[in-house]
Amino acid sequence: MKPKQKKVMFISSVGGHLTQLMQLKPLFEEYEYYLVTEKTEVTKEMKNEHPMSFLMYGARNYPVSYLFKFSFNCLKSLGIFFKQRPDVVVTTGVHTAVPMCYIAKLFRKKVVFIESFAKTSSPTLSGRLVYPIADLFIVQWETMLAHYPKAVHGGSIY
User: Fold this and answer.
1) In order along the chain (158 residues), what is the average pLDDT of each group of 10 residues?
2) CATH domain 7-116 topology
3) What DSSP string describes 106-126?
4) Does the predicted model carry a pTM greater than 0.85?
């Protein structure tokens, strides 16, 4: 009898965070995986290749609309979580991913956070929010261990 494969949800915002997340593509073959990112013209085409859901794109530089979009994404994340029921949530971060990490933790699932490659000397807001609850927190630069002492230096994912 074949052992049950772990269900892994990979989630990030678009742009560089998604580019970093897609560097983990070899892991997709080892697990039952599911992708979650923001819906844009670029990401819509990814649905042809990967099982995935989309959240609403929202930039923080528009605070009023961002508040509504973030609230909507929190509720939608809850729905996606219940539908997919992942064992592990892996993220390269930013605002889209934070609610999913907390939802996963609430339901006693594992959370793996990979701090952005672009951050060499200061933490991201999403990193600071997820660090206390992450089961595994990975930094790509050794200098970031000063900000996240319990993190693991994993090196670059590029």
Assistant:
1) 81 94 94 96 92 88 82 96 98 92 98 95 95 98 97 91
2) Rossmann fold (3.40.50)
3) HTT-EEEEE--TT-SSS--HH
4) yes
